[in-house]
Amino acid sequence: MTFNRTLKLLLAGAAVTLSASAAMAQTNLRVFISSQHRPDVWRKAFDMYEAKNPNVKVTIETGGNTSEAQAQYLNTVMTAKDSSLDVMILDVIRPAQYAAAGWTVPFNDVIGDVGAYMKRYLPAYAEANTVDGKVVALPAFADAMFLYYRKDLLEKHGVQPPQTWDELAAAAKKITEAEKDPNLQGLSFQGKAIEGAVCTFLLPYWSMGKQLVSDGKLSFDKDAAVKSLKLWKDFVDQGVAKKNIAEVATDDTRKEFQAGNVLFAVNWSYAWGQFQGAESAVKDKVGVVKLPSVKGGQPASCLGGWEWGVSAYSNNKTEAQKLVQYLSSPETSEFMAINAALLPQFPEVYTDPDVTKAVPWFASARPVVETAKARPVTPRYNEVSEIIRTTINGVLAGQATPEEGATQMEGRLRRVLR
Ligand code: GLC
């Protein structure tokens, strides 16, 4: 073998090795997930992705048990232009704000026909993730609030699931009195000053047919606000809800119901999967229906949901966007519906036979999601949220009457939303 030929062979071999190692160059993606939204099940979805994409490794970071705690953490990361996070899950109220801050990368160039791509999702999510024609995040799962109840106890006492809040109070009193279990709460809901308490306030307010914001302007109905605050406070005063409900966040409601200590619970969709888990004291004893309305009003739910955004500071944006497209696909939606009872962002997944087998109530959940109302859309949403949640919390803690609360809320909201 001549020297030249040997050299050529060596070079060719080196090239093969080089291109092989280039093909195998590993990308590590770090994904932020809210801790109550089943990181254990998302992990399985990542494992399947890694199996098909051996050059990608996904690490999960979890944090913050509530939406605003997570937002606070992510705000710090983004403000520091930290490149360690590639993908982050965002509450449906935030993609527009993140896009405005320049914290996320649009998907327009990678999803082909943008209109057709986004049309596959439920309209509320296509809308929440599109800002000025830019697709700023892709839907992870849908969400709305429901009424969970103890099917076994309602059946035992011959009570139907309530359709109004008054019926709920009457049913709760009847059953808790008869059960004589000092640990059994009639109703659990979110009274802590968390993001979810904004929805707590809005549920009866919307049920009275009122809007908070229309055309970007405040359309506050003081009378309806007093009635909403009073409805929740009355539950506490009548012993239907526990005295320290002002300390109760979403996952507290979930845990207390799961331990068998709650008859009725207002909660989001993720709770169902947990109630059916091996460690639950209420497995197979849970019913779920749409929320009650005020007397003479319409039932109303609050639109929730979570979205996948790619960080503008990621060093792996292309791989991160590919991963998000997989996470936001009908296949992953189906997987998460079956294994974690997270509501689908695609209409057809609600009636998929495997999904209805695993979570039979999803068939009736779709109309609730489709008619759920969105929290006000305004660039100053953080302030609006803070005003509403601290006020309802103060009323429930007995620091202000419903009338005082509504007056304070109106004054503060007027300064933010003129
Ligand atoms: C749920 C909803 C989310 C909402 C949050 C409030 O996670 O999906 O949209 O803001 O609860 O606690």
TrEMBL record:
InterPro entries (UniProt xref): Bact_solute-bd_prot1, SBP
Entry-linked CDD domains: PBP2_TMBP
Protein name: Extracellular solute-binding protein
Signal peptide: 1-25
Taxonomic lineage: Bacteria, Pseudomonadati, Pseudomonadota, Alphaproteobacteria, Hyphomicrobiales
SUPFAM superfamilies documented for this protein: Periplasmic binding protein-like II
Subcellular location: Periplasm
Family as reported in the entry's similarity comment: Belongs to the bacterial solute-binding protein 1 family.
Gene Ontology annotations for the cellular component aspect, listed alphabetically: periplasmic space
Keywords: Periplasm, Signal, Transport
